[in-house]
């Protein structure tokens, strides 16, 4: 047979598979109606095992056994997505309010005035006073306690990647993401007036800022010292009698009256950081088009692939996937996923219900307009 004949044969078989697939899905819809009426969960583990065992037996070919099991697992996952839509699409909406950034009484940022978090906060809340906390954790605590209406935290930098410490705290505290804001980061090397670059031996800054300026730091041979924040590092430089420097924003250096010894020192010319605005309760802005969730998945073969199938089949574009250790001595991780969709979309509601019902650790952690 030539290639054309082989492909014609494949096309014929695909048509048969397709028509059988459609028939199977019709039956699954019937199953969904039954489950809805009898208040049964969509997922039936025992039945799925039965299906897979039977398929493996019928395959009768060791080489193809794994493939047929994967194929039927995917078919059953698609079937559950359709069943969830039938059952949960009309589920009640989440309870939420609208964000009120202009009416916010207090807003918490980490660091001190001049920090990049403050510049990010200004983009959302305008020129006003912010409450500063020594650590990211204190900002989460203040939001949880209702001490501030909103908190501002960095999550991702275009040069250095995710801000791990924020993600670790996201797993520890209850909160909701209300908005995402992107800030152009402009790092400079700043020291006390009159200090020369040649005199400087060491430089203080936040870990993220130091890692965004690796090339400059190794070229100049300056010794790095991690500090809680770029702006607090700049304040330390101002107070110190030693010839030390800080990596901070130009705004911050100018505000404190420091000498800028070098400008634009980040490894990449375009250096941007994304910040999240968080609140204690779920707040949904009208223009929100992305949803954030955090979850763990079982340590079984294909479980990440099967999770991603849910987003793919529901036409939800995955915008971010991040994983962090759950820190219990195992090597298990917590996944943080952002995907496109509105909380009120029937398919989003169905996926969230499905995840809620079937995963041990699952939390929807807010919705925002992606930038
Ligand atoms: C169709 C059903 O719902 C789900 C999907 C299955 C399938 O597509 O075969 C099997 C078990 C359930 O998890 C069912 O309960 O029979």
Automatic annotation (TrEMBL):
<keyword id="KW-0028">Amino-acid biosynthesis</keyword>
<feature type="domain" description="Prephenate dehydratase">
    <location>
        <begin position="106"/>
        <end position="280"/>
    </location>
</feature>
<dbReference type="GO" id="GO:0004106">
    <property type="term" value="F:chorismate mutase activity"/>
</dbReference>
<keyword id="KW-0057">Aromatic amino acid biosynthesis</keyword>
<dbReference type="Pfam" id="PF00800">
    <property type="entry name" value="PDT"/>
</dbReference>
<dbReference type="InterPro" id="IPR045865">
    <property type="entry name" value="ACT-like_dom_sf"/>
</dbReference>
<dbReference type="InterPro" id="IPR036979">
    <property type="entry name" value="CM_dom_sf"/>
</dbReference>
<keyword id="KW-0584">Phenylalanine biosynthesis</keyword>
<keyword id="KW-0456">Lyase</keyword>
<protein>
    <recommendedName>
        <fullName>Bifunctional chorismate mutase/prephenate dehydratase</fullName>
        <ecNumber>4.2.1.51</ecNumber>
    </recommendedName>
</protein>
<feature type="site" description="Essential for prephenate dehydratase activity">
    <location>
        <position position="273"/>
    </location>
</feature>
<dbReference type="InterPro" id="IPR002701">
    <property type="entry name" value="CM_II_prokaryot"/>
</dbReference>
<comment type="function">
    <text>Catalyzes the Claisen rearrangement of chorismate to prephenate and the decarboxylation/dehydration of prephenate to phenylpyruvate.</text>
</comment>
<keyword id="KW-0413">Isomerase</keyword>
<dbReference type="InterPro" id="IPR036263">
    <property type="entry name" value="Chorismate_II_sf"/>
</dbReference>
<dbReference type="GO" id="GO:0005737">
    <property type="term" value="C:cytoplasm"/>
</dbReference>
<dbReference type="InterPro" id="IPR002912">
    <property type="entry name" value="ACT_dom"/>
</dbReference>
<dbReference type="Pfam" id="PF01817">
    <property type="entry name" value="CM_2"/>
</dbReference>
<keyword id="KW-0963">Cytoplasm</keyword>
<feature type="domain" description="Chorismate mutase">
    <location>
        <begin position="1"/>
        <end position="87"/>
    </location>
</feature>
<feature type="domain" description="ACT">
    <location>
        <begin position="292"/>
        <end position="370"/>
    </location>
</feature>
<comment type="pathway">
    <text>Amino-acid biosynthesis; L-phenylalanine biosynthesis; phenylpyruvate from prephenate: step 1/1.</text>
</comment>
<dbReference type="GO" id="GO:0009094">
    <property type="term" value="P:L-phenylalanine biosynthetic process"/>
</dbReference>
<dbReference type="InterPro" id="IPR008242">
    <property type="entry name" value="Chor_mutase/pphenate_deHydtase"/>
</dbReference>
<keyword id="KW-0511">Multifunctional enzyme</keyword>
<comment type="pathway">
    <text>Metabolic intermediate biosynthesis; prephenate biosynthesis; prephenate from chorismate: step 1/1.</text>
</comment>
<dbReference type="GO" id="GO:0004664">
    <property type="term" value="F:prephenate dehydratase activity"/>
</dbReference>
<dbReference type="GO" id="GO:0046417">
    <property type="term" value="P:chorismate metabolic process"/>
</dbReference>
<dbReference type="InterPro" id="IPR001086">
    <property type="entry name" value="Preph_deHydtase"/>
</dbReference>
């Amino acid at each position: 047979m030539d290639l054309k004949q082989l492909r014609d044969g494949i096309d014929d078989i695909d048509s048969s598979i397709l028509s059988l697939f459609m028939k199977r899905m019709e039956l699954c819809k019937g199953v969904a109606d039954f489950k809805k009426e009898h208040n049964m969960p969509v997922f039936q583990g025992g039945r799925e095992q039965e299906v897979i065992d039977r398929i493996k037996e019928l395959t009768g070919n060791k080489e193809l056994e794994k493939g047929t099991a994967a194929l039927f697992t995917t078919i059953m996952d698609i079937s559950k997505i359709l069943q969830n839509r039938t059952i949960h699409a009309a589920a009640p909406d989440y309870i939420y309010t609208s964000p009120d950034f202009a009416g916010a009484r207090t807003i918490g940022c980490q660091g001190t005035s001049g920090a990049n978090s403050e510049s990010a906060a200004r983009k959302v809340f305008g020129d006003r006073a912010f409450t500063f906390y020594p650590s990211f954790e204190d900002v989460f605590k203040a939001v949880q306690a209702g001490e501030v209406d909103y908190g501002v935290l960095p999550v991702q930098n275009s040069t250095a990647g995710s801000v791990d410490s924020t993600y670790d705290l996201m797993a520890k505290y209850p909160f909701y993401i209300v908005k995402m804001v992107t800030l152009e980061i402009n790092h400079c090397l700043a020291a006390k007036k009159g200090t020369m670059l040649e005199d400087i031996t060491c430089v203080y800054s936040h870990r993220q800022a130091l890692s965004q300026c690796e090339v400059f730091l190794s070229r100049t041979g300056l010794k790095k010292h991690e500090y809680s924040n770029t702006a607090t590092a700049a304040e330390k430089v101002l107070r110190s009698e030693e010839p030390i420097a800080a990596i901070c924003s130009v705004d911050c250096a100018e505000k404190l009256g420091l000498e800028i010894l070098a400008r634009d020192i980040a490894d990449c010319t375009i250096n941007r950081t994304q910040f999240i605005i968080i609140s204690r309760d779920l707040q949904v802005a009208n223009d929100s088009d992305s949803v954030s969730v955090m979850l763990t998945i079982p340590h079984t073969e294909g479980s990440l692939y099967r999770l991603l199938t849910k987003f793919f089949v529901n036409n939800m574009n995955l915008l971010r996937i991040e994983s962090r250790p759950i820190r219990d001595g195992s090597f298990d991780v917590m996944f943080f996923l952002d995907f496109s969709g509105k909380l009120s979309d029937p398919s989003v509601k169905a996926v969230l219900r499905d995840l809620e019902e079937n995963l041990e650790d699952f939390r929807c952690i807010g919705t925002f307009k992606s930038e």
